[in-house]
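Final paragraph of the annual report: two paired records, presented back to back.
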Amino acid sequence: MFKVGIIGGSGLDDPNILEGCKEIDIVTPYGKPTSTLKTGKIKGIDVVIIARHGRKHTIPPTQVNYKANIYALKYQGCTHILATTAVGSLRDEIARGHLVVLDQFIDFTRRRDVSFHESFIEGNAAHTPMSEPFNLELRANIIKNCEKLKFNFHPKGTVITIEGPRFSTKAESYMFRAWGADVINMSIATEAILANELKIPYAAVAMSTDYDCWKENEETVSWEIILDVFKQNASNVTKLLVAVIENLKQDSQYIKNKIRTIPHWPKKGIMFRDITSLLKDKNGYNHMIEMLAERYKEMHIDIVAGIESRGFITGSVLAHRLGVGFVPIRKPGKLPGETISEEYELEYGRDKIEIHKDAINPGDKVLLIDDLIATGGTALAAAKLVQKLGGKIVECSFIIDLPDIGGKKKLENAGYKVFNLVEFEGE
């Protein structure tokens, strides 16, 4: 269900970290990644590790094949990417050895290929949203575990990514501070852009190793200083990544364990995933809502739109938790006001769903929600209804994905971001 890509290196090459460690040498359509892929398990979760600058740190920042690295992790089936990086501090309060859970970047590079879109498909200009470049759910997970491990950390920070390999001049360092950057490095913006294009949740843990060159009475940054501080604190970064990965497993498995499977319903051969067992469990239901609320609390959603009927159960409670309105999307004939409708194909025949004409205002940010994504037909029709009213879909969210049926991929191919808490293979 989960497979985590880790981009970094220092401290992560310890063979004891990965259970069943193997090395894979691959070539992508964009060339070779900057290192072989180390695969194995951490806390029972499949993990793939790439050394950003090569195993012996021989590849300068501009020459890193970022597209091959990100594509390789996607090709290996990674559902999340965690990155580690050394940064220079541009703020007094971010001391050497402190961790920063990055939330924004400024891209100050000039020579990099930062898009997989080498041409536009007719009718789809493929401009990737980047207002929140670091995945909110992963960031919340990292912050929670930094608190649990009692590390010195900062829950947010803007990183400016420069070309390198040279360090900044004092004039540049002062300018970056004036721009609002908190830390500086040479890699993260490029990775975040490419990961977002491939719709892989990406988050980065930055370790402050120096004060760049802006701070008086502090030694100017050097490679030796960076290495020394990073080596001293590499074990903390490793502990944090392991804790985050374990947390991903626990949260998902907890929800999955509350969902029962009923064989041969509604017909023979169907394995029905029944969420009523999750809903009746107060701890499970609450945990599910809190996980979703944590994910969406900073996305500035205006409306939660729930698809009939189980989307009402989750969507209305989540809307209340987020302090926003709720809109039902229903089968024909169940809404009393003036409606618009959208037809969609079923296995046998067609069906239709409707929404009130005044349910959504143009420009509203809408979260579309249902209990399960199977073929994707209903969800795609619902998304079209929202867009007909001028709403902007932030994400399509589900408790369960059935990946073998392909509905999630259908929504993603149509340009929508899709999230699910758990998945069950098979129908």
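The closing record of the year follows.
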Amino acid sequence: MERHDNNHRQPSPQELSRRRFLAYLSGLLAGIITLIIAIPIIGFVISPLLRPKKESWVKLGPVSALTPGQPIKFAYSYQLIDGWFEKTAHATAYAVLPAAGTKDIIVLSNICTHLGCGVRWDDTQHQFLCPCHNGRFDIEGKNVAGPPPRPLPKLQWKIDQGMILAKVEEV
């Protein structure tokens, strides 16, 4: 004996297509709303990556402080912006007149290319020495001994009103 219950009847094809249309419409609206909310959030998150890097020139010191064959250490600081975090970075550079009679200054970062330790000039050995793994660089920053794979980084420089300026870029 079969019993038919009107409460459990099969939907007509017309009702099925209406249901399917409303389901698609609901999904489409949900996707549009999600997209409207997500675009500004994604833009906010990735905007620091798309911002062009800023460069600035920092004062190192007077050209008159340079002596041929004697690197001079200059400490400087600049504003560093990393995403939304802004801080003052402190760094050191050496300015060198390699020989008497030359006007070409060399400005070197004091960061060793091996592991990033700070190098220092040694007057007795006439070399930049890295205390971490005994890396050595000549007066022009070329690596001459130890594990450093590259010379010391050279900084772009210019002279303005008797002052040596070095170019620093955000990393």
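The chain has two domains: 9-50, 55-169. This concludes the annual technical report; the extension proposal builds directly on these records.
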